[in-house]
Amino acid sequence: MLNPFKPEKAVIREIIHETADTTTYTFSFSEANLQKGFRYHPGQFNMLTIFGIGEAPISISSNNNMDSGVFQHTVRRVGNVTNALAKMKVGDSVGIRGPYGTGWPLNVLEVKNLLLVAGGIGLAPLRPVIQEVMYRRQDFGQVELLYGARTPGELLYTREFEQWRQAGIIVRLTVDAVPEGVTWDGSVGVVTKLFDEMSSEPFDTLVFTCGPEIMMSFVVRGLVNRGFVPEQIYVSLERRMNCGVKKCGKCQIGPKFVCRDGPVFAYAELLTLPEEVLGGVAG
Amino acid sequence: MSKPKIAIYKMSSCAGCQLEILNFEPMLLDLLGAVDLSYFVMAKRENEEGPYDIGLVEGAITCGEEISRLKKARQQCRMLVAFGSCACYGGLPSIKNWTSEREIEERVYPQPHLLESTTAYGIDHYVTVDAYLKGCPASREELLEFVKGVLLGIKPYLRPHSVCVECKLHENVCLFTSQGKVCMGPVTTAGCGALCPANNKPCEGCRGPANDANTESLARTFDEYGLHRSDVVRLFRKFAGMTPEFSRGAEVL
Amino acid sequence: MSVPVMKVTEMKWPALSLLDKDGIAEFAENLAERYLVFGPVAKGSEYVFAPVGKGEVLELNYHTTILPPKKLLHQPFEVLFSFHEDGIQENIVEQPKQIIFGIHPCDVHAIQILDKAYSVEYEDPYYMNKRKNTLIIALNCSEPAETCFCQSLGTGPFLKDGYDLLLTDIGEAYLVEVGSEAGMELVEAVNLRPAARVALVEKQKVYENARRKFRKRLLTQGLHELLESNFRHPIWEKLKEECLACGSCTMVCPTCFCYNVVDKLDLSLKSGKRTREWDSCMLLEYAQVALGHNFRKDRDARVKQRIYHKLLYYEPQFGTLGCVGCGRCIKTCVKKIDITDVVSRIRGE
Predict the structure, then answer these.
(1) Residue ranges of E strands in A53-135
(2) C74 and chain B: CB distance < 8 Å anywhere?
(3) What number of CA atoms fall less than 13 Å from residue B178's CA on the CB side?
(4) Residue where a domain stops, chosen among B87, B122, B152
(5) Closest residue in chain C to residue B168, using alpha carbons only
(6) Is the same domain home to A137 and A91?
(7) Is residue A107 part of a domain?
(8) Same domain (yes/no): A178, A262
(9) Whose CA is closest to C255, among C106, C63, C62, C39?
(10) What SS3 class is residue A226?
(11) Which of B17, B201, B218, C62 could make a disulfide contact with B196, Cβ separation 3.0–4.6 Å?
């Protein structure tokens, strides 16, 4: 019987330090066949095991189309698993199972214009969307990224911004605060502040947002106030997960399993749930 | 990390928690393979000087001399652990805290003028504490989990929920609902394997408040079961009366 | 899993038989020679499902057990796999055939719900491995306990399908009905008296009698709308004050499936086990994520989660209500919080 709880061995191929507490790891499965068959959509996640420490859901920050026999996770040190991972080096192995969850509706819905709103580590599951746009740029119209972090030093993937801009993606940045001695010519304030200068408009646009839940609740509210409707806004939620396959029950919100029905949800769908998500609730 | 050095300090206590380390028996050698018990007066004649990686402090702090020894221990140890409920919350010694110091001293000692006892507190009243290992005595299994956590540099999994969870996992008969015996299990931290209820004795709350302990509600149920107010107070003050949760339970009626 | 045969049952296995009450012990012993047999036995003042070696310890007049027989399929503690430097060893062993003897209709229904939960989209191999090797000898309820309300949910007191054998206490003996090929083999292996079809009339009498004995009920009519429109009902604030958040109600629930996963490392730090154990949405830490944010920090949110999950969310998830009316959560609650009472209070009764 196939065991969905059994992690497969994956080896760390490369480590890129993004910020003081966040790192991008490049992995490949030890078994070549597994790696070959590993296909995933932007927005999906893996369960990452450090044997003896535990397992945690981590979004995939790379894109299948760029497949060079590897996949990436961008991980912030917040708990036991991520702290243990931070101590590992190239050549060490972890356990991986996945991919799980729905992902962004890139292949499901006809997408023209894209507005991406990210906060902090929330950019990780959106990076594969940006890579998808760059891979087939002609399929998309205007694509705009609004990205906020606490300080300039905490912005992820800064080395890639130029490439994104060259692909015609509008990149707008903001930080909560600029520490002394740091030069910053971008905006200062929460990510919703960028709404005032953004180019995106509701017509023919899908919004994808990921970040702290409190940030997303301001994002959805701010967008609705600007004429966007809940049906065009997609959010990626974080919940506790022990299985990723609808068994352990932890991630449930109303009848939804975030691990399987999500982690990406249409905001409109969340509004139908009795339990309050992102400040919205049925009725 | 190389073998961490462990020091064991005794404050006002019965020494039952340190005895638990010796009670490890079959595991003791494995434990010694992983750590150095550098300072363990109960078990060794020759003890090493500090500094140490981990200090396990047993007992409540009940006098000035202990306060200064505790502060020294804090300086000597990279991590300081409240080892057992006395060190966590004041434990059994804290039952004296609701009577005047002089009355207690006179009741216990023939020459009370020779001592100067203070309110019994857990050690975090005086120093920063890195971890709490609850219980009377502290649990060997949890100590082991803690040591492994230190070796790995992670936060160990120590049960945060009520004793009821473990009672049910082991399918014990519920003494409370089946036999009408009042039990502190619903508000007390598990991790003991529900040892007392499994042996037909209601939980006495030795491990202190569980996550989200609703002690006021439990106290009201004790009242409905016909417990005298003073008995309810005693139940909540036996081990952890100094914690906000158990203190609310003691005072609600 | 023995395939439950429904309407066809009577045509395919028309034979009804009788099992004398003093023959129960022998029957169980006979089964125990070929199967691991679990049945209700006394534990202090309560009952538990335990191995039945000698049939005489079977207590078929039990009302309910502390834990549901779910524990034989989804164990309170379970090792998923062990790991060491060379790899992983899955803990999926060849499962001995087991029989759950004397299981009540509510608990059979609960297992049918778990079957869905543990097989939907991804099969849980640990559960399914045990489930496929489990036979069910059910026992219709003739004496519901005061906490029972299965009748309101259509999950009892009598069982219609989902059994290999079905027993009904019709007075001088148990009427035995066959529900599957595997059940047929069980009765063929022992000598049972054939029963006349008139025994079904006796069975009906026992049923009518049992039906009248229920003291609790949970009206399901319009339940969805009722709950959906009462998420802010003042009762939740009251339950927040009362509930001890001890988790007992969920620990004894036959349809709760949540679990927590913990890695247990040996002191060598080189090998260990990944284990799981039952978890509960009533516990504070359940919905807490790594950075400490808790999605159900307030007790009323957790009380609601339990009741809404059972009565509202199971249906879209698994096509059935999540409560079978076994009454365990009511019986085990120190605060006497009663799901049937909660619903009637919301209804304003």
Answers:
(1) 54-59, 71-76, 93-100, 113-119
(2) no
(3) 19
(4) B152
(5) C251
(6) no
(7) no
(8) yes
(9) C106
(10) coil
(11) B201
Closest Cβ opposite residue C285 in set B169, B211, B214: B211
Please check whether residue B16 lies inside any domain of the structure. yes
- pTM value is 0.94
At A41-72, the pLDDT tens digits run 999 999 999 999 999 999 999 998 876 799 99
Q: Is residue B86 part of a domain?
A: yes
Domain residue limits at B167: 163-251
Q: Is B244 on the interface with C (CB under 8 A)?
A: no
**pLDDT tens across A135-159, in order?**
999 999 999 999 999 999 999 999 9
Structural domain range at position A42? 8-100
Same domain, A151 and A71: no
Report the mean per-residue pLDDT for chain C: 92
Whether residue C15 has pLDDT greater than 70:
yes
CA neighbor of C49 nearest in space, from C100, C1, C110, C114: C100
Token duo for residue C58? 């079977």
Split into its structural domains, chain B has a count of: 2
Q: Distance between CA A163 and CA C102 in Å, rounded?
A: 69
The CA distance from B239 to B88, in Å, is: 10
For chain A, say whether B152 makes contact (Cβ under 8 Å).
Answer: yes
Q: Do B154 and A84 touch (CB under 8 A)?
A: yes
Distance from CA of A156 to the nearest CA of C (A): 19
| In chain B, residues 144-173 whose CB comes closer than 8 Å to chain C | 144, 147-148, 151-152, 157, 160-162, 164-165, 167-173
CB contact under 8 A, C308 and A254: yes
CATH code where residue A213 lies: 3.40.50.80
Q: Strand C259-265 and strand C272-278: pairing?
A: antiparallel
